[in-house]
TrEMBL record:
SUPFAM superfamilies the UniProt entry points to: Arginase/deacetylase (SSF52768)
Alphabetized CDD domains for the sequence: Agmatinase_PAH (cd11592)
Name by which UniProt lists this protein: Agmatinase
Example GO BP: putrescine biosynthetic process from arginine, via agmatine
Enzyme class: hydrolase
Sites where the protein binds Mn(2+): H132, D156, H158, D160, D247, D249
The enzyme's E.C. designation: 3.5.3.11
Species of the source: Arthrobacter crusticola
Amino acid sequence: MEELRITAGGHLGPIDSARVPRYSGAATFARLPRLDQVDRTDIAVVGVPFDSGVSYRPGARFGANHVREASRLLRPYNPALDVSPFERVQVADAGDMAVNPFNIHEAIETVQANALELTADGTRLVTLGGDHTIALPLLRAASERAGSPVALLHFDAHLDTWDTYFGAEYTHGTPFRRAVEEGILDTEAISHVGTRGPLYGVKDLEDDRRFGFGIVTSSDVFRQGVDEVIARLRDRIGDRPLYVSVDIDVLDPAHAPGTGTPEAGGMTSRELLEILRGLRGLNLVGADVVEVAPAYDTAEITGVAASHVAYDLVSLMADNLTPPSKES
Ligand SMILES: N=C(N)NCCCC(=O)O
Ligand SMILES: [Zn+2]
Ligand SMILES: [Zn+2]
């Protein structure tokens, strides 16, 4: 079957949903071409079907494909950022990484190696998880490509700077402690956004502060409002290379029921999208959307929220990249 894609700006875009029903065919993110259908990419969306690092409900291994399915309704122009990301740069779906579900160390190595391979030509990644364990190898690759430690904006109900679970160092509750220990984060510019819920003890917060994290809690977002939060975050990040990690459980369970460790009192999807859009112009070098667990989702609520988050991340990156066609 002919694919009938939108081609604009010299880039192969999504299948045209005005000519091919959007509910038909195999799902790629936003109906974009697969990596093997394009000559080169500026941004690749890639899946990591891995959830062997979870401490509670499993199922995030199915997250990436759920987000792809829920992304069929995305349209090519993003009015909130006034950008047509698929026209401005070449975006493609790189499929899924083949990660070992039985060996977490090997899985982490695979994610790091695949991320480095995909970014060797300057391509930027928006990764669909998978559980939050995968942020560590993705950050390793991002800082290697940036040539320096990177700033981090971490949207999550949880700190994910805990030390070990059952003696295990590599889990979905520990990636950012490991990243600080490894020196791959610029600790002048690392922040959590949306944290809430019970902790193991006050030491969790003391450790986290010692690592250098700033915290904008879910309550701060509600009480201060998104504009003040955006100003605080931008101030801290400046022009540093920035990695954004979005754990979908940053949203209230009403906005994202399909996740493994839900906490009450979270942000709305509107607040999250508004804060992300407030990052326009920053040097976004990589991003992930993790912890989508479709078995607990209803009516694609979580899938739709995650697909819009990923779309805005792609839009921010595209907006900030000079289209190669305009360089020459
Ligand atoms: N990264 C996510 N989603 N959750 C971490 C929860 C760790 C815990 O069970 O305490
Ligand atoms: Zn979380
Ligand atoms: Zn997390």
